[in-house]
Q: What sequence folds into this?
């Protein structure tokens, strides 16, 4: 696992850039989940500012929990940037998660994961995702009964939940009418005007953040690019084999918080590889795991679980990357395995969801049918048509 960046000045600059990149996403979360429902008359003043409160609560909680932990254990916690983990936690949770549960998730995120696992720079797993996994696993029923991912406006105007949840309920792979139409157009999903976690619905803002953070060398661009391309390639094969257009793989990468996870969660400097080869393998296998979880398991949190699983393999990937830097043949086998999995998943899932062929109808001989039978058939057809119309 790569060492934590020791230059405090550079680390502070990175965090400043990260906050700048997150600011439009936070403002969009406020606009979509607070201001718009208020203007439409579906909530009050408190409901309007509630999205900001929701994001602020875990941000402050993680900071306070670290201070309390330091006082109890008499350990000095320096530059852990716990507030960033709390901020991310607030952005990736459903809006209707009760605040006491959010605070509990912040406790799990900051104490059990970030502090007990050797404090700053030594955590094995992404702290915000650990907190989300804890909350979603234990309190899913409570959150759902409270409104789930829907803001006050969506509760009154949308009859379904998030796009990916809706996709899991349709027969087969679904169609444009069943997957996209309930939310308007694919452009709506791209902009982020759909149900989802507080701050992870806007693909557009995630792409802008990716460009900004890559330009200032805050994140490792190889990870999100290979992650997104892998998911796109596999789902393109799946959709293309079933006569679905280019919209289908785009739908898959626009939903489920995949873009937010690729840009912000998978690129965490502490829990992701530092070697170029390790980063590419990390992104590819993230994409493979995400597709596996989405299509072959009933588990809804594909992006989150994929990142947490790959977090545990970072040391292995960096070892491969270090050796492969001087002897690429050593790193060749993981790439071969990855391509076999990509092709196998694409073709295998395509066959699983393939539409059965229409039964071949044998041409009947033109035989002379008695006139009485013709009359009965005509009567039956008329009656049948009346039943169908009813």
A:
């Amino acid at each position: 696992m790569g060492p934590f960046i020791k230059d405090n000045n550079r680390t502070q600059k990175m965090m400043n850039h990260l906050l700048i990149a997150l600011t439009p996403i936070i403002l969009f979360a406020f606009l979509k989940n607070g201001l718009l429902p208020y203007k439409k008359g579906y909530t009050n003043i408190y409901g309007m500012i509630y999205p900001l409160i929701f994001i602020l609560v875990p941000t402050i909680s993680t900071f306070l929990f670290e201070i309390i932990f330091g006082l109890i254990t008499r350990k000095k916690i320096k530059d852990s940037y716990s507030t960033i983990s709390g901020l991310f936690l607030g952005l990736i949770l459903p809006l209707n998660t009760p605040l006491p549960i959010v605070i509990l998730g912040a406790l799990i995120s900051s104490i059990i994961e970030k502090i007990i696992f050797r404090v700053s720079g030594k955590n094995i797993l992404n702290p915000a995702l650990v907190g989300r996994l804890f909350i979603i696993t234990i309190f899913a029923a409570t959150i759902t009964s409270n409104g789930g991912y829907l803001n006050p406006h969506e509760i009154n105007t949308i009859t379904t939940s998030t796009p990916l949840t809706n996709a899991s309920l349709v027969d087969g792979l679904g169609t444009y009418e069943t997957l996209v139409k309930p939310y308007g157009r694919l452009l709506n999903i791209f902009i982020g005007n759909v149900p989802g976690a507080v701050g992870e619905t806007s693909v557009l803002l995630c792409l802008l953040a990716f460009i900004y953070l890559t330009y200032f060398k805050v994140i490792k661009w190889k990870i999100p690019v290979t992650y997104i391309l892998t998911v796109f390639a596999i789902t393109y094969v799946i959709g293309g084999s079933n006569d679905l257009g280019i919209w289908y793989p785009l739908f898959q990468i626009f939903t489920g918080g995949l873009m937010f996870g690729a840009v912000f969660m998978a690129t965490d400097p502490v829990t992701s590889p530092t070697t170029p080869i390790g980063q590419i393998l990390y992104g590819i296998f993230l994409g493979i795991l995400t597709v596996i979880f989405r299509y072959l398991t009933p588990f809804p949190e594909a992006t989150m679980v994929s990142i947490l699983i790959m977090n545990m393999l970072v040391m292995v990937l960096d070892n491969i990357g270090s050796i492969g830097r001087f002897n690429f043949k050593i790193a060749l086998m993981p790439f071969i395995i990855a391509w076999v999995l990509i092709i196998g998943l694409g073709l295998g899932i395509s066959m699983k969801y393939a539409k059965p062929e229409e039964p071949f109808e044998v041409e009947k001989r033109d035989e002379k049918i008695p006139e009485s039978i013709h009359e009965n058939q005509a009567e039956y057809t008329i009656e049948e048509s009346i039943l169908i119309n009813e």
Remarks:
- The first helix runs from residue 8 to 39.
- The two ends are 67 Å apart (CA to CA).
